Amino acid sequence: MSFRNKGLPASSWYTATAHPSPRLPALRGAQKAQVCVIGAGYTGLGAALELASKGVSVIVLEAATVGSGASGRNGGQVHPGQRRDQAWIEQILGPEDAKGLWQMAQDARANLADLIKRYGIDCDFKPGLIHARHRPGGEATDLRDIDHMAKAYGYDQISLISRDHLAEDLGTDVYYGGTCDHGGGHLHPLNLALGMARAARAAGAQIFEHSRALGWAKTAKGMRVKTAMGEVVCDQLILTGDGYIDGLSPAIDAQVMPINNFVLATAPLGDLADQIIQSDMAVADSRFVVNYFRKSADGRLLFGGGENYSPWYPANLTAFVRRHMLKIYPNLIHHPITHAWGGALGITMTRVPFVRQITPGVVAAAGYSGQGVMLAPYFGKILARASLGEMSGLDLLSRLPTPPFPGGKLLRWPALVAGLSWYALRDRL
Ligand SMILES: Cc1cc2nc3c(=O)[nH]c(=O)nc-3n(C[C@H](O)[C@H](O)[C@H](O)COP(=O)(O)OP(=O)(O)OC[C@H]3O[C@@H](n4cnc5c(N)ncnc54)[C@H](O)[C@@H]3O)c2cc1C
Predict the structure, then answer these.
(1) Does the CB atom of residue 380 touch ligand 1 within 6 A?
(2) Does the reported pTM lie above 0.70?
(3) CATH number 3.30.1060.10 given to 2-418
(4) Any ligand 1 atom below 6 A from CB of 70
(5) Domain ranges of the chain
């Protein structure tokens, strides 16, 4: 498991194209703050920015470096909405909560746009997200969903794409049509995280890198968080960490577990750039193990595909992801791959995020199940507000069910591997 917290992967195209940012000191000695945030990914940085902007003293402890978790490694795809579709949420929580959660997701979308604009975060945002069907059929369901979203939520950003149109746009005929959500998009994920950290620090947040929180406890003076070389005494604690958090809360360990997902970057596409994704949107397909791809600002194909359910990465990452890419773009067989990397993401049994008050004074968000680029910065804001006593957003999110994985922390792996591998196998049938 040692790969998980070693900082940004040197083999990542994001690392290679990150804007320069200062290395931050490790925590030494005892410090005090009103709020301590664990983890400097989108959630922790979103929380820190919100708190510091309100004049609250906040310390962020980061085990490795800013954005070195999933926030600096992901596919960069901006998915509107909650992780599960509205029909599922309506069934589970009823129409009123479903409307509240939809509004929250819209607020998260506006928050992301505002972050980029207000703090001048240069992260190559481009609009549009295509969902491509990998099996025949499904058009009637898509039309029903489009109609439902327009009528029940007034959301009219989704349109149907025919098979021919999709083939022309993507430069591959493997898909059977799909939809385009004009409210989605894609961006450079690490530059978003670094920009958020810059904004949070400018507002007064202190961020310590290489400062893993080893544990926390309630004391008569408030909360005490220990690192190898120091400690933070605080009134409130915010736990983030998604697929990288481990051992800080039995509730998170039981309900969130990490899996690995992988991405590659090709060399610039040259003449092929005009044929591959002409619309320059992000694309995600309908497989259980989703293939997701888009073009980078410098004209490469960034392709995410394949995951594994072990603490270890595959030995040859490039080959592991490339075989998925070649099924979509066989014409790239001789095209060089320049970068390949992976990251861990937290999933829950129901694939909705785990957002909870763990105990009075301690709130947490993790388990975005692969969809945190848009939600996580805003959920950080919701955690910040909860630690200042404004609980409505947290209460609503807490109603999303995230039952524990069967088998507990030690025995959950075999059950998960069997379950997920079966679904992944179905993609190939
Ligand atoms: C390969 C991959 C592709 C993805 N693609 C997409 C996508 O295209 N679109 C999308 O919406 N989502 C995607 N995701 C998911 C998305 O990246 C995450 O949901 C999101 O980044 C979660 O942000 P976070 O801040 O909660 O966690 P992270 O970004 O993982 O940050 C957690 C941080 O906490 C730190 N930490 C953990 N434990 C401690 C501790 N004890 N002390 C101090 N620090 C600690 C870690 O070092 C890490 O920096 C992808 C994820 C991966 C891995």
Answers:
(1) no
(2) yes
(3) no
(4) yes
(5) 2-418
